[in-house]
Amino acid sequence: RISRPNDGAMKMKMLRLRSPSVSSLGPELRCTVRLLDDSEISCSIQRDTKGQFLLDHVCNHYSLLEKDYFGIRYVDPEKQRHWLDPSKPVVKQMKCQQPYTMCFRVKFYPQEPIKIREELTRYLLYLQLKRDLYHGRLLCPFADAAYLGACIVQAELGDYDADEHPADYISDFKLFPKQSLKLERKIMEIHQNELRGQSPALAELNLLQRAHTLDTYGVDPHPCKDFTGTTAFLGFTARGFMVFQGNKRIHLLKWADVSKFKFEGKTFYVIGVQREKKLVLTFHTSTPAACKHLWKCGVENQAFYKCAKSSQIKTVSSSSIFFKGTRFRYSGRVAKEVIEASSKIQRDPPVVHRSQLGQSRSYNSLSHKQLIMNMEPLLPALSSTKEHRDTSLGEEESAITGTGAEVERREQEVEEGEEMGSLTISDMAYSPCASMLPTPVEEGQGGVDFLFQSPGRLLKELHADPEMQAELQAERERELAREALRQSLCSPSSGRQQLGACIRSAARLVAAATVILLILLPLLLVLLESDLDVSFLQDIRQTPEFEQFHYEYYCPLRRWFLCKLELLMEQLWGD
């Protein structure tokens, strides 16, 4: 067999120029995708290249087959995060300047990680959960935090060796937002005793098995306000729709009980059933873009976890019956199809290239031996003085506090690190770092509450703007002109003309209303009385608003009308 070394280059060229359109012959655009281990890969795309090509490019880089759990996320210039739509061109979605930078992340967390077929997929999920732990998205009690931390150390450090590891080797690893000395000692105890002898793959699987039992597993928190003005975090998981306040889950609606998601402006609605009664939850986001992103995430997660087949997925709208608003349809496979496809994988498992961790600078001074191993702190520990550690050694619940934010290598998510304060893992309020907000802000600026300023404060700031002052002056002049026109119309000489104009306007309004009723009444009767199997009509009939109107208003009115009609007919026949 004759080998051709340029086959790979020719194949990539064919992938880039897969479209025969004229626009595909334009200049190539550079895209950089940051992976879960913070490494980066780049590729060139055309202006009509769709998001699916970019996702396939990353999956081919990993040789990943179970790719339905993953997605590519980016941040627009307004700091609002989005998931890249595979069915739309990349250029039309990215509003920022080139080169484009995005992040490869887990989009749908598997409900049962044990059903993941390949070790490679489990390793990528492990990397995502490690990030979730560090950035405060995966909240866990003390015992679970110690076990998860020990699994990470075992997976990346191996078995404990007294000759190579100093007495406080865990202190050089940053695993959690707040990491107390008591927690570090418990992690070392589990690592040295319970997990000895476990391979990296087994330690990673143990972490997945423990993490998926936690309430915040798979939660990508969306900050908002409820109807009382209290800050809450919304999340979508394999179990259903969740609402968190503080460190407590206050709502859980399973997917079988969720009927529909809606949004209007900055208001997000969750319509469902609880205890055989209709339930409507209302939340308010900081911006309309954040509300739309929240709605799309809810629609996608509901379709992925609830539907049995992708053919059952329907196009949904964000608004009411007659005003369709934003229409959207999840275009991927659902969870059951992904698990079924995974069970049919028969290839030899690909080699998992775990991230090569560099040597810890702290170990050079703490250990008497030069460590020759693939090891470094998971993330550098925040600055803390030796005197602080010595004085706090006897305190059971002391925490390591930092002086600044740990920014992840210019990551598009702008994931900022620490919040000042003394918190423990078990008592921490569920307040993810500022990266979870649509517009990242510093804690000193008010955190989440900064995004929901009072209207009075906003108006005060706007009125201080010179451009706004000019617009207000122009508005006052227009108002004076309208007032002068109204006074001229109210003069006695124009009274008859004004009365005639009012009569003509009323006549036109009555005529228009009559025409609209004549058009809508037959359509309403078709919806209520006919059994036409049309997809558009079926979608309307299945909405909660239509069902409520049908059973609470139309049916009683129809029975009353038929009763009156029967009485009238009896009187006529009796006469």
From TrEMBL:
PROSITE patterns: FERM_1, FERM_3. Its main location: membrane. The chain crosses the membrane at residues 506-528. It is found in: Membrane. Residues 29-309 form the FERM domain. It comes from the Eukaryota. It is a single-pass membrane protein. This is FERM domain-containing protein 3. One of its GO terms (cellular component) is membrane. GO terms for biological process: actomyosin structure organization. Pfam families: FA (PF08736), FERM_C (PF09380), FERM_M (PF00373), FERM_N (PF09379). Residues 384-423 are annotated as: Disordered. Keywords: Membrane, Transmembrane, Transmembrane helix. GO terms for molecular function: cytoskeletal protein binding. The gene is FRMD3.
